[in-house]
Amino acid sequence: MMTVSAAIAKVRSLLMNQAVLLLNAGMLGLGTLMTAILGFVYWWFAARSFSAEAVGLAAAAISLMNLLANLGEVGLGPFLMGEIGRQKRTGPFLTGALLASFSASIVVGLIYLAIAACTSTQLGSIVGSSATDLFFVAGCALTAVTLVLDQALVGLLRSSFQLARNVVFAASKLLLLIALGLTLGRASSGLAIFTTWFAGQLVSLVVVAGLLVYAGRRVFHRPEIHAFRPVLGQVFGHHALSMAVQAPALLLPVVVTVMLSAEINAAFYAAWTVLNVALLVPASLASVLFAIAVREPELFPARLRLSLGLSMLVCAATALAFLFLARFMLWIFNPAYAVIAGNGLQFLGVAAFGMALKYHYLAVQRVRRRLGFATLVLIGGAVLEIVAAAGGAQFGIAGTANFWVIAVSLEGLLLCPALYWAIRRTATPSTTAPPAAAGVSTYGNSLDETDQIGIASRA
Q1: Of 319, 370, 366, whose CA–CA distance to 346 is shortest?
Q2: The dihedral of CA 56, 61, 66, 70: what is its sign?
């Protein structure tokens, strides 16, 4: 029988082995908690101060902006999470990535506007008008920069800076929204709400730059673009895989707005915000797994078990909360939202299980160097989710939500065998990424050890 001292020693050893994971995940978790509280207050104040149509349109436009920013980010964020820790000159390397993502997202935004000019949707009052085109594109570019920067900071195991940026962003956009509500009130448009989001991102970047200067670090470097040329296959491979995970979640509010109405999306987005706050926990754990797998790949199976266990506990709490408190959650935002959605969103929390399994499947397949196969699997799942949500719209908000939950849950179940295999298997040189000296290889085959685990989240 194990003695008390032996048990204490075992626990101490476990904590020491997992210290890097727990410390950085803790930073991300703290950031999640802070931004969750401020984000809840942000959308609560918006629901109480502005019309449902303005809130619904702004929420859809912000989701669309995030989708285009993720497209414009071209996979540089997930790539940097593993690669930047190995660079001797991290400043020029990061600056090059930020410049590339900024430029690419502008191109993506302009392509979208060209397509939107040929179509007509309910988002036209925010996106696609001559007065707001450039502003929307600038928002896409700025968001892409913050996505890459956040993931690079995690890769450098500097989650404290990432925490600071996200807290400043959440706090500043909330203060701007309150000022907007007090001055214009219900006369404010969706574009005005969208502007607070853009301004908050800009303020957060300025503050982080100031913190870096205060810490004695150089902020501006000559960008180093040529370093990415030999690894473009890997970068785009990461990008395709990340978009397959993120696109359905970012498109869902847009689908609700277009297929149903902006007013219904206002109620849906309130519940969607709560769900995505809960999903930030498994997303944060998977992100840190990515960052430290380069350094200690042999501990990946044990850390995967820990991450999955914690994630499933959060998912169970989320599902129960939605089942019994969905209408109360909506009522807290705005009593009208509870009337609009009724009981149609009470099963939305069940989707947390499928989403968490997707995040960890992404982690496993990147570590096992199977990006090509994983991309095909997750693209199929993404198509299933969007088709299910759009098809369910004929039954109202309940149909859209429940059909999507069924699709993402089915997807998660199909991914379970790969996760079980990864948990049971002991890490060996053949199942983990090769050392840095192994060089660069092609997408979908043997990948460099920097091709690891990316983020989801975001939502």
Answers
A1: 319
A2: positive
The DSSP 8-state label assigned to residue 458 in this structure reads -
Cα separations in angstroms, 70 against 63, 103, 111, 183: 11, 13, 14, 33
For 310, list phi and psi in degrees, rounded to 5: -65, -40
Lowest mean pLDDT among 248-257, 297-306, 413-422: 297-306
What distance, in Å, lies between the first and last C-alpha atoms of the chain? Answer: 48
Cβ pair 318, 275 in contact under 8 A: yes
Residue 402: which pLDDT band, with cuts at 50, 70 and 90?
very high
Q: What is the pLDDT averaged over residues 131-160?
A: 82
Sequence-distant (≥ 6) Cβ neighbours of residue 165 within 8 angstroms: 146, 149, 150, 153, 204, 205, 207, 208
Q: Select the more confidently predicted residue: 427 or 35.
A: 35
Helix (H, G, I), strand (E, B), or coil: what is residue 453?
A: coil
As a whole number, mean pLDDT of residues 257-277 equals 90
- How wide is the angle at C-alpha 347 spanned by C-alphas 345 and 351, nearest 5°? 110
